[in-house]
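Feature request, filed as a ticket because there's no other form

It would be nice if the structure record came with a short human-readable summary line next to the tokens. Right now we just get the raw output. Example of a typical job, pasted below so the devs can see what we mean:
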Amino acid sequence: MPKRTDIHKVLIIGSGPIIIGQACEFDYSGTQACKALRNLGYEIVLVNSNPATIMTDPEMADVTYIEPLNVERLEQIIAKERPDALLPNLGGQSGLNLCAELAKEGILDKYNVKVIGVQVDAIERGEDRIEFKKSMDALGIEMARSEVAYSVEEALGIAGRLGYPVVLRPAYTMGGAGGGLVYNKEELKTVCARGLQASLVGQVLVEESILGWEELELEVVRDADNNMITVCFIENIDPLGVHTGDSFCSAPMLTISEECQKELQRQAYKIVESVEVIGGTNVQFAHDPVTGRIVVIEINPRTSRSSALASKATGFPIALVSAMLASGLTLKDIPCGKYGTLDRYVPDGDYVVIKFARWAFEKFKGVEDKLGTQMRAVGEVMSIGKTYKEAFQKAIRSLETGRYGLGYARDYHEKSREQLLHMLITPSSDRHFIMYEALRKGASVEEIFDITKVKTYFIEQMKELVEEEEALTASRGSLPSDDMLISAKRNGFSDKYLSQILDISEDTIRTRRIELGVEEAWEGVHVSGTPDSAYYYSTYNARDKNPVSTGKPKIMILGGGPNRIGQGIEFDYCCVHASLALKKLGFETIIVNCNPETVSTDYDTSDKLYFEPLTLEDVLSIYKKEQPVGVIAQFGGQTPLNLASDLEKNGVKILGTSPSVIDLAEDRDLFREMMDRLEIPMPESGMATTVDEALSIAHKIGYPVMVRPSYVLGGRGMEVVYDDESMAGYMKAAVGVTPDRPILIDRFLNHALECEADAISDGSHAFVPAVMEHIELAGVHSGDSACIIPSVHISPENVQTIKEYTRRIAEEMHVKGLMNMQYAIENGKVYVLEANPRASRTVPLVSKVCNIRMVPLATDIITSELTGRPSPVQNLKEQHIPYYGVKEAVFPFNMFQEVDPLLGPEMRSTGEVLGLSPSYGEAFFKAQEATQSKLPLGGTVLISVNRKDKAEVVEIAQSFADDGFKILATGNTYELIRSAGIEAEKVKKLYEGRPNILDMITNESIDLIVNSPAGKESVHDDSYLRKAAIKAKIPYITTIAAARVTAQGIRYVKEHGNGDVKSLQQLHSEITDR
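Raw output as currently delivered:
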């Protein structure tokens, strides 16, 4: 079938900011869709609120809007652009829900927009729990016994009939948000109330518990002629009861019989055909290994996290193909070098793929590390090996949690068998590491199976690894026998882990195995739909089948590994751009990365992709094989930087800023010496390794002080300390964080404006496109603070000073490439806080707002010693940007209900959004709207601030009063506001009796909350207020600085209404040279 000619302009909706359950796999699918549809000659309009994506680059689509994802804004864009069609199934749950809402409001009909890929009624059949059940009954496909409830009372009745425990699943949500497993009536009341609120349609499914069954997934692709293929069969190794996003899984299925797989496929095809999805669909089943009963759990009529995994696991680019099929092509129309055409595709790889999740429990005090039906993971890794053992151990060393094997994690090896088995009762993120130690302590396979319901095959494989490890440890202190070393390498034991258990150096092991001829070999994974493209994985269990080209000079880029808080998609963005820029400069590019969600692991981002862990062993093997002229480490965040100096010691050429300079920036003493030499002020500071040292430094500097470990990203372990007692507590707790690296102590700049500057430097000149001003004051991590670019409240003199300091530091340190500088301004004086001579998380933001290609420019500089090209820095001009961008962070507090949602020096956001407007008030308003907490234009505001903020509270209250808000205030805050002659009403705090604030929040009689935390000086904990605000979805503000901008934003929108939407391309055309 030829492509459709009745449509010319297609609107693609992105998935918005990265949150738990919806990460950068949608950047990957959206980017692929843009490529596919533009190749077919369609014009693309793209909407997404997340600036840290490749898809929102002005080159990806014809017209790009970075706007909040909601019906009003989309209607503005549709009215302006008049697309013929909308493709909703590549933007995750956000894209699907928006499409359904646009259809319901009649907007699609009004502007005559057709939906392609998945029909609106199909979204309903897939997402609405009642509709889905009806469709399944009609097909004769079994589901878990369940009924739908619209109130807590109904749910209690249903649970009584089904028998506890039951699972609650809200409709139209993802990542299992708002749902959960409940064992009694009280739990049901709490979870059901939360679920009804989380659901778009106030509907919750109450279903029988099928805990402990096998969870199996099929990734199916269907075209308009009803041809269907199964791209991938995925087996979840953790049983039902752990969300698939947290579950450890394998492809192909390793323990499921051929008959069972055929039956799953038959049912999946029936379902996909009845829902009529065109493109990819993910179908989840539960299989009871005892009775053989199969039930369908749910379908996702869209590309999902699993489809990104399935694409990378099999080499079948699901999103790319889905977009082509949505345009009317069929599988028979798409040629493929391996199968002829794609309708003949079968998943036939002779390798094992493992996916393992990455969590961030350490970032959230008070959260229990336990896994259930609500997703908790913030990222994942994928590994490929010839055997299960090899792939499994590769996955562990890909995670970057400082573990290179399964044993000796935390203190588990010191616990008894009974203690370990008891720990296994509740699934946690360390479950498989605990199983490993339990096996070492003599627990039987049956015992572990009874508790965890993980299939015995997987436990037996693990037991064999434990036995092999114990045998190896017998020769502790020296090399094991050659046969044992060879066998260990074949079973996936890494050099680093062997060095840890044998207590000898990693080099000794590497040298010996190379003498024995035990080296990594590589095999390719063929990319479907291409003549002969492939990407490569290493194995110690096969011959090398990896052709090496010698035509062009090669450069290797090290990726960022798994997504985590503090190191997310922004670094992947930099790696992708570096690869594209290097291709243009005439190099062959090689990317090494292990994150299946990303654009960098898309087969055509680089000339050659190695799907490998970022460890010394793996990177050195590839370096030896490919012989590149150099390696770039400054774009992948902390991951490649931690490897850089070890690589250099092994003779690898690191391009750009040298690793020793990066160490210089981390070494506080050396850095301070340099600042003194340049006469650039820094806050007074010191380094301590003991409690006494810390206390004497703090007394010399004066409280409050900021304390933190050296060498961290995302502010791990940072705190502001106000007294001796907390300081002693911090030092006692922190010693474990950094064994040989001291704790840094700085004077905390109180009430200082924090700002940062990104620079492009060639070693002797540096250029700063713009200074970013943080809205939150010093003390909030830069990744969590909202920021305005270009700055608004920094005086022109200070902006010049910041640019000047940045240039001087870049030149003094001979930075080649990108650099990020953090500053604070206290009483008009600029202080340097830190220098990061590498790409930072603000690179995509600055690139988009200032229309400057930061990564390509940096890449040009980094490679100039090889290309002989002149530095582009001198030709960069200062520009006048006639609009503002406000970046706002997005937090996972709704998934962690027990956490106090306060901002501090430790980074806790998972993603970000951008608001653009000629007025910075409106830009801030749009940024809040994009985080899905839209500011009210009127109503009631509650103000309750701590002692430190009392001075400024009157000004804030006055501006809300001017905006026509009714003001409620507590205790002292109320007295202050009233004495300034502003109307306000006094309300009670929780401990002052009823009706109190909590009652009012629960009754939805408050529209906005301004609350700076009481902190340590108060006897009464006020975190209930902020937790309640999140539960009730009320916008809440925890700093005075943000409250000020909020009031301005609300006023601007009240006076001017919703401004015009402008595309990124149009905004860029308005920038002029100074």
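Something like this underneath would help us a lot:
The CA atoms of residues 217 and 284 lie 5 Å apart.
The radius of gyration is 28 Å.
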